[in-house]
Amino acid sequence: MRYGLVLWAQKLLNSNKNSKFLVTYVRSLCSTIQINDVSVQAQHPQLVDSYRTSDKRSQDQRSLHIAVIGVPNVGKSTFINNIVNHRVCPTSAKVHTTRQLNTAICTMGQTQLVFYDTPGLITQREIRKHHLEQSFKTSYRRAIQHADVVAVVHDVSNNWTRKGLPSTVLDTLKGCTYLPSVLILNKIDALKSKRVLLDVIKILTNDMLMGTRGVKNAAHALTAADTVWTCLNKRESNWSHFSDVFLVSSITGSGMHELQEYLVGEAKTRHWSFPSDVHTDSSPEALIEESVRARLLDYLPQEIPYNLNCELEYYSVEKHVVYTSVQVQCPTPRIERLICGQSNGKLRQITERVTSDLVEMFGQAVSLTISTATKETKTSSGNEN
Predict the structure, then answer these.
(1) In sequence order, what are the beta bridge partners of 312?
(2) Cα separation, 83 vs 106, whole angstroms
(3) CA 146 to CA 323: how far, in whole Å?
(4) Structural contact between residues 232 and 226, judged by C-beta atoms closer than 8 angstroms
(5) Residue 281 and residue 274 in contact, taking contact as beta carbons nearer than 8 Å
(6) Which of 305, 307, 285 has the alpha carbon at shortest distance from 295?
(7) With contact defined as beta carbons under 8 Å apart, do 200 and 185 qualify?
(8) What burial class does residue 358 get, using C-beta atoms within 10 Å of its C-beta: 0-12 exposed, 13-18 middle, 19+ buried?
(9) Residue 266 contacts by C-beta under 8 Å, 6 or more apart in sequence?
(10) Which of the 8 DSSP states describes residue 93?
């Protein structure tokens, strides 16, 4: 029985088609096939070496899971796309582009960083007022449940809000004091003078950083828990328990390398959650729909794009080309005409922009068709790129 399994495994190795599957299967049979068996080593050294190499790599693996939180439009998705060096999260200039939990993965050497992109933190009252999904309240909780560290992204380009953390952020930090947290001051490229940053850091952290860069402070929150309630009851706009502060620009990439090095240093020894060549756990179909919806936010005014529904009609990959079609369902013919523009000019612009996003996302050629339809007329117009 054992000899037959080894012969079968050797055939797979010689075919060079199922090496990953083979290593996984051999690992599951390790109790039956002892790789230190002299006869196995002598007759099938390639099989033994493959197993040992894979096992050694898995033992050296390290990972860190980061929940990225913040109020709407502080640049969380753009920040994540930049730090993982891959377009994973759809972005736009409007608020509420991210409406559900997205996962972005960056693997460097033996370390894997997993980022959870969450919708902007808002109150239950705002959810009811704007008729938003309940995912705005549940997504950040799910992210924190799986996280090793919480990263708070704060916009320092806004002169009115940069010197205080929003109450939604403070309430969220209060609920996860068992996790270390870092403060990420984003959009520093928009500041004319960087002198203001020192004052902002002192105010937001209450001039109390819990540790120094590169030193683990996972247990600090437990000892500080008694003082958390005092801070929040006063409704102060700062948090005294950040492990560190980073100054970054999601647009230029400034400060990203230092933050990445810090996170790699905080990684824990354990098996990866995803293969090294995977950048997200979202399906291609979901990424296409969200990319179309994000660009509609950029090209359409006011609240109009929030009332549109994007539905994938077709998706296929043939000869390294992605062929896909998305239908935008409009509530009225007037809005449909607004999307299409004169001679379908605006719809053509949207299609070209989404196609560019998808090429960057998938790393291959994309043929995209976006069509529009209304419930009243049951007719559609479309544009292909």
Answers:
(1) 326
(2) 8
(3) 35
(4) no
(5) yes
(6) 305
(7) yes
(8) buried
(9) 64, 148, 149, 180, 216
(10) S
Beta-sheet pairing, 309-318 with 102-108? unpaired
CA pair distance 333, 376, nearest whole angstrom = 8
CA distances from 207 to 75, 199, 258 (A): 25, 9, 21
Question: pTM value?
Answer: 0.79
**What does residue 57 show for φ and ψ, rounded to 5 degrees?**
-65, -40
Backbone angles phi, psi at 22, to 5 degrees: -65, -45
User: Mind listing the pLDDT tens digit of every residue in the chain (385 residues)?
Assistant: 444 444 444 544 454 444 444 444 434 444 444 444 444 455 555 544 544 455 556 678 999 999 999 999 999 999 999 999 999 999 999 999 999 999 999 999 999 999 999 999 999 888 888 788 888 889 999 999 999 999 999 999 999 999 999 999 999 999 999 999 999 999 999 998 888 999 999 999 998 876 544 333 333 433 344 444 444 444 578 999 999 999 999 999 999 999 999 999 999 999 999 999 999 999 999 999 999 999 999 999 988 999 899 999 999 999 999 999 999 999 999 999 999 999 999 999 999 999 999 999 999 999 999 999 997 655 455 677 7
Which among 241, 218, 214, 247 has a CA at the least distance from the CA of 229?
Answer: 241
Q: How far apart are CA 166 and CA 122, in angstroms?
A: 10
Write down the residue that tokens 């994973």 correspond to: 88
CB 195 within 8 A of CB 180: no
In DSSP terms, 322 is beta-bridged to: 317, 366
Q: Helix 220-233 vs helix 167-174: angle between axes, to the nearest 10 degrees? A: 140
Give the contacts of 23 (CB within 8 A, at least 6 positions apart): 50, 51, 54
